[in-house]
Amino acid sequence: MEELKTQIVVIAGGPSGMSAAVQAAEDGADVIVIEKASITGGAANMGMGPLGIGTKYQQQQMIDISVEKAFNMFMDYTHYNVDARLVKRYFEQSAETIEWLEDMGVEFEGAFKYFPQSEATWHIVKTGNKIGPRAAGHMNKALLKRAQELGVKVLLETSGKKILKDDEGKVCGVVAVNKAGEEFTIQCKAAIIATGGAGCNKQFILDEIGVEQGKDVFNFAIPGIMGDGLKMAWDAGADHLQVRIEAACDPGAGEEARASVLNVFKQPNLLVNKFAKRVMNEEFMQNTTYLSNVASHQKDKVVFSIIDSTIAKTYMKKGVEVTNLVNPDADVSDFLEGMDEILARGSKNFFKGETIEDLAAQIGVDAEVLEETIDDYNDYCEGRDEEFFKNYKYLKKLKKGPYYAAAIRPGGYGTVGGIRINENCEACDKDFMPIPGLYAVGADSCNIYEDSYMFLLPGNSMGYAVNTGRIAGMEAAEYVEN
Predict the structure, then answer these.
(1) pLDDT in tens, 115-161
(2) DSSP reduced 3-state for 439
(3) 3-state helix, strand, coil in the chain (%, to 5)
């Protein structure tokens, strides 16, 4: 295949890559995007929308959130273990980015919380249907259309293999491979890595993070997200930072179940570990990053949510108390049918016991200890939670069989981080010096969460992707022009 030539090569066409391509093209650069899948959009096609701070939607909805407030929340949350300059630039640009997307025809439902304890920073893309997963696919289509209008060349089913540098250490090309397996070179002055981490690479996750996918952690494993960009950046001299799982989890460790079943076990009811002991104030289960963190520190990395038939029937009649935008429907009237389906197929994550002793045997805990834990918990339900101080309105006695339980194990969206960048999204070496012409965006460069995803400001993953894409596009366009 013949050699191609351009100014900027964007490696992968997810939201960060396409945002980079559009911004760079708007700023006058010639751009080629290479995408190993047959469509653009990446994992964000399953998402719902990006973070925005200080937007017109928040002003219209009288939502009290500013860049200053969000920045201070974020830095306090991460204990200042992250790049304050990058966080500030990302947040400060985020409102204008919402308008930038609107100029391409993207419409938004407004600004929303993910769960009650979070802030309303999540800007959900409007689809004409109910709010729910995959809404951001409309945003990704708009980005692709805008890129094509600007003359960006998009090579699908084409993957990046290597970053080339000249004798001065500047990026001068990208080696790529097409669908037929043919290797070719694209000459360029700058490359932007936007490959989305390594969430589908089981061996990579074991080597880099030390956990086994499907045993220790149950993160999303989007096909094709194998860490290609991370390896290319490291080979090109970028500093190799710690890679993490962007923690968040649901009941059942990813096992398929009706929404009603998942919704019931997301409620702040009794949560115990393998020793049949409580492990947290269950009110904070709604932040699934916290829940995943708790599970990861327990024996066998598992906790169990337990309810009785009275709690189940109350939810079935009145609806659940805590909802979120992914599972917004409070109606769980088909919970029992959903449990019957799961149990009939021999689930290892959902359980039903006629007695506490029966349930204890199924989940593998000491029956006497579990009965003692439930007795203590029931006492707390009559007054005050003396153990973890849970809000009284969430205290519900467990007193009547059958009893139901769900295993909850560490989960996550994928990997984040690994490539050192500065506030301009320039990939930097071990001495913090930029590698001329090399940029990294999105999950590959997302070192801003330290040990816990900042779920209190929802939309962060996609917000970081789109905004760092734009930053890299601006900076790379200026670099190649000069």
Answers:
(1) 999 999 999 999 988 887 888 899 999 999 999 999 999 999 999 99
(2) strand
(3) 35, 20, 45
Q: Name which of 261, 273, 296, 280 is nearest 364 in CA terms.
A: 273
Q: What is the sign, positive or negative, of the torsion defined by CA atoms of 129, 286, 118, 314?
A: positive
Asked whether the beta carbons of 225 and 200 are under 8 A apart, the reply is: yes
Q: Which residues pair with 427 in a beta bridge?
A: 421
**Residue 152 C-beta-side C-alpha neighbours within 13 Å:** 35
Token duo for residue 213 = 């996918």
Selection from 34, 28, 42, 1 nearest residue 153 by Cα: 34
pLDDT > 70 fraction of the chain, expressed in percent and rounded:
100
In the chain, the amino acid numbered 286 is Q
The tokens describing 186, both together, are: 């694209």
> Strands 122-125 and 171-177: what pairing?
unpaired
Q: Supply 173's token pair.
A: 């090309």
354: amino acid identity, one letter: E
In angstroms, the CA 70 to CA 90 distance is 11
| Omega cis (within 30) before 50 | no
Burial label, 124 (beta-carbon count in 10 A; 0-12, 13-18, 19+) = buried
| 273 torsion bin: left (phi>0), alpha (psi -120 to 50), beta (else) | beta
Q: Round to whole Å and give the CA distance between 14 and 41.
A: 4
Q: Given CA atoms 81, 84, 90, 91 in this order, what sign does their dihedral have?
A: positive
47, 224 in Cβ contact below 8 A? no
Please state, in angstroms and rounded to a whole number, the distance separating the CA atoms of residues 350 and 252. 7
CA separation for the pair 438, 236 (Å, rounded) = 9
Sheet holding 31-35, edge to edge: 153-156, 31-35, 8-11, 190-193, 434-440, 426-428
The β-bridge relationship of strands 8-11 and 31-35 is parallel
CB 35, CB 222: distance < 8 Å: no
The three-class DSSP label of residue 87 is helix
Cβ neighbors of 194 (< 8 A, separation 6 or more) are 10, 11, 12, 13, 14, 16, 17, 20, 229, 440, 441, 442, 444, 465, 469
Instruction: Please state whether the predicted TM-score (pTM) of the whole model is above 0.90.
Output: yes
Cβ(310)–Cβ(399) under 8 Å? yes
Residues, the chain, total? 482
Q: Which residues contact 167 (CB under 8 A, 6 or more apart)?
A: none
What is the token pair recorded at 8?
Answer: 């900027």
H or E, element range at 479: helix 460-481
Confidence tier at 1 by pLDDT (50, 70, 90) = low
- Nearest Cα to Cα of residue 89 among 70, 109, 106, 111: 70
